[in-house]
Amino acid sequence: MLPPQLTPEERARALESATQARRLRADVKAKVKKGELSVGQVIDRANNEPAIAKMRVLELLESQTGIGKIRAIALMDRLKISHSRRIQGLGVHQRLGLLHSLDPTSMRGKLLVLSGPGGVGKSTVATRLKEKSNFWVSISATTRSPRATERDGVDYYFLSEEEFEARVQKDEFLEYAQFAGARYGTPRDGVEKALRDGKNVLLEIEIEGARQVRAHSKEALLVFLSPPSWDELVARLEARGSDSPERRAQRLELARQEMAAAVEFDHVIVNDEVERVVEALVLLAPNQRTLSGPSY
Fold it and tell me: Is the pTM of this model over 0.70?
């Protein structure tokens, strides 16, 4: 079967389109060479720009300063990428492999900080999130006594005042704070390792701790968990059988102060249904890159 015959006008438009596509690819490669665009940014653009999607992977890699043809070919061989493969033909795992090889920080996880008034249900949400998603939920350390259903190393790391202070002096906490007569802190090493490994991390901490994280981490996203109403929060606090009347009164007063802190957070989610809150948190921290294309 013969190819369709083009009119002179159609042929001219096709030639002009091809010329523009070549110019765009040349411009992209020049920007990669200058450091104005990363390989990851070009791969992202290829999802929406057909001209870039048709760029050969080898040409793209060679454009990055310090790689060269030999290293580019070696990298493609290791990832089982054909030397003639175009960006649009890359599988998801091949794309992720390229990104991680060229820039390990591109695989870093998201850091979410969940806070809110005492009794709002932070622990319940964190537990359900851990069960339902790939979030790594940090376990806090505390000097308070464990409740009847709590286990050391699972719900909290229960420390003495002396042990907690020793860790403060060694700078082992990402944040720490005093709350309702006890000290709480987030161990730093576990959080950092999880983020480096590409895991999304949830910190379930008190308001003051969230402020500390905000002050020291530009990557943190702060989420305030709010009760459906003040009356509902009071009912939840009063239902805690493990607290004395004095402790409940103290928690209520603290809750009044904490509710006012909601304006300091990036997002406010009302805890009227645990499953809905979990879904909202998952949406706030998607996988680092949502890559289209065939699986590999």
Answer: no
